[in-house]
């Protein structure tokens, strides 16, 4: 699959957030969380990243010329 540069660019931000949350969850699973690494804080980070989750989909549709 070939992914347009525009799709890759808009997906990088959300990828960074998701990777950070994943790493923090793994740390929580191994023991006491780091400062600010509580499950509640991670949930807030995920909710804040939510608009970024739809951006790659929107950009891909635009690239393909699909409306709606």
Work out the helicity level. Answer: over 70%
Uncertain regions spanning at least 5 consecutive residues:
none
β-strand percent reads under 5%
Overall strand count: 0
| Series of secondary-structure elements, N-terminal to C-terminal | HH
Spatial shape: elongated
What is the rounded Rg? 15 Å
Could you walk me through the main structural features you see in this protein, from its secondary elements to its overall organization?
This protein is mainly alpha-helical. Helix content is 76%, strand content 0%. Helix 1 (5-30) runs antiparallel to helix 2.
Question: Any descriptors?
Answer:
2 helices; 68 residues; single chain; mainly alpha
Give a topology summary.
Elements: H1 5-30, H2 39-64
Helix pairs in contact: 1-2
Short account of what is shown:
By secondary structure, this protein is an all-alpha fold. It has 2 helices and no strands. The longest helix is centred in the N-terminal third of the chain and has 26 residues.
């Amino acid at each position: 699959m070939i992914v347009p540069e525009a799709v890759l660019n808009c997906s990088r931000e959300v990828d960074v957030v998701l990777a950070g949350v994943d790493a923090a969850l793994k740390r929580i699973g191994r023991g006491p969380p780091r400062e600010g690494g509580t499950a509640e804080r991670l949930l807030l980070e995920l909710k804040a990243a939510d608009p970024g989750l739809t951006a790659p989909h929107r950009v891909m549709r635009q690239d393909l010329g699909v409306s709606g």
